[in-house]
Amino acid sequence: MLGVVVFLVGLFVSIAVHEAGHMITARRFGGRVSAFMVGFGPNILSFKRGHTRYGLKAIPFGGYVRILGMRPPGQGEPVETEEERSVPGKDFYRLSAPRRTATLLAGPFSNLLLAGLLLTFVVSVLGVPAASSRVGVVRECVAAPVCSPDGKASPAALAGLKAGDEIVALDGAPVSSWEEIAVSIAARTPGDVLEVTLVADGEQRTVRALLAENPAAPDSAMLGISPEIVSERRAPTMVPRLLLEQSRNVLGAVLGFPVRVLETFGDSLRGEERDPAGPVGLVGVGRIGADIGDAPAPMNTRLGQLLVLLAGLNVSLGVFNLIPLLPLDGGHIALTWFETLRSRVARMRRRTDPGPVDMRRLMPVTNLVVAFFIVSTLLLVFADVVNPIRMP
Asked: Of 165, 250, 149, which Cα lies nearest the Cα of 209?
């Protein structure tokens, strides 16, 4: 239940933030804004403040801001109602190219900003998973986590190490992190005797362990322990790097999106295992959120994972909307600067300004892009329902 609630609220906020970015910037530059809606379909809630009508609709998978005068009259722009004609300000197409660009960029950048705030909260307040110097799991056998009747016990099990023991020194050399413990063990060879100083139940003691050969890495030593995973707070300076990594991942996914969608649909249709790194629709993201919320983990950990999931969703929304294809924000930006450069070239050549591009000529391409998005969404819904990605 936690995962579903956090995901739905987060999705609502993400959409609202995107549209608010457009609306606030348009108003700042004197644009005419008549409507701010979150969702599609029938109205659940609607009210008017000033000259703008705000509303919440029944289907929460989207939203829109009605900025009046996006294109010049006669280019397929919806006819304004009597209420809309009373909205003061300038038509959007009359704003300068930089101001139109800033307004269009404000939506995706608002999502990236929200993603940064979510990651900052997770990193600096909730903490990120980190390996500690305490023992989390003691491997029973050298060759397997659980011993068979004829299995050889691991060095850690023979030495009496237990979950919760804190390792403070190896062969008398102090250690304070799992990285130091792992490096120290890796520097030894099978058959070496390792003195492990640990604190258990408030008392310090030293045990001796005869290191075995790691079956997964021949000629390397193993003790047979795994660290206890804890939440560790980090400085927010790591957030820009996380955002950049997520943005690169989304961009890479976008470049191969058509092929990956077809592969995902085909795997689901044939009943084959789905690639966990493949594309996921909103239904799939919601199911992942539900799995996280129901996982047997501390509340702090589950909340952190859900907020990271929402941060990733916002990065996807931000990067995806910057694709230079209509009707996405990136498509409108590309069109704005094409018109601007074309007008400047005409002035330099002392020719008549060709003016804005007639959007009616671009409608076939725009409709093709919209159709592709609709089909892709339906294919991913099918895959997410019949062959969902599950959290381990």
From this structure: 165
- Enumerate residues 6+ apart whose C-beta is below 8 A from 16: 38, 63
Per-residue pLDDT band at 307 (split at 50, 70, 90): very high
Catalytic-labelled residue, pool 19, 180, 195, 228: 19
Task: For residues 130 and 181, give the distance between their C-alpha atoms in angstroms, rounded to a whole number.
Answer: 14
Q: Where are the domains of the chain?
A: 130-232
pLDDT at 88: 93
257 vs 269: CA distance, rounded Å:
18
At residue 392, the pLDDT reads 60
Q: Do 327 and 370 meet the contact criterion of CB atoms below 8 Å apart?
A: yes
**Of the candidates 272, 258, 306, which has an alpha carbon nearest to the alpha carbon of residue 383?**
272
Q: Which two three-digit tokens encode residue 384?
A: 């997410």
Query: Can 19 be counted among the known catalytic residues?
Result: yes
Q: Are 23 and 51 in contact (CB under 8 A)?
A: no
Question: For 238, which DSSP code?
Answer: G
User: What top-level class would CATH report for the domain 130-232?
Assistant: mainly beta
φ/ψ of 135, rounded to 5, equals -75, 125
Question: What is the residue whose two structure tokens read 């959409």?
Answer: 15
Q: Taking a C-beta distance cutoff of 8 angstroms, is the pair 277, 288 a contact?
A: no
Q: Is 191 exposed, middle or buried (0-12, 13-18, 19+ CB in 10 A)?
A: exposed
Q: Is the pLDDT of residue 379 over 70?
A: yes
Q: Name the residue with tokens 């950990």.
A: 301
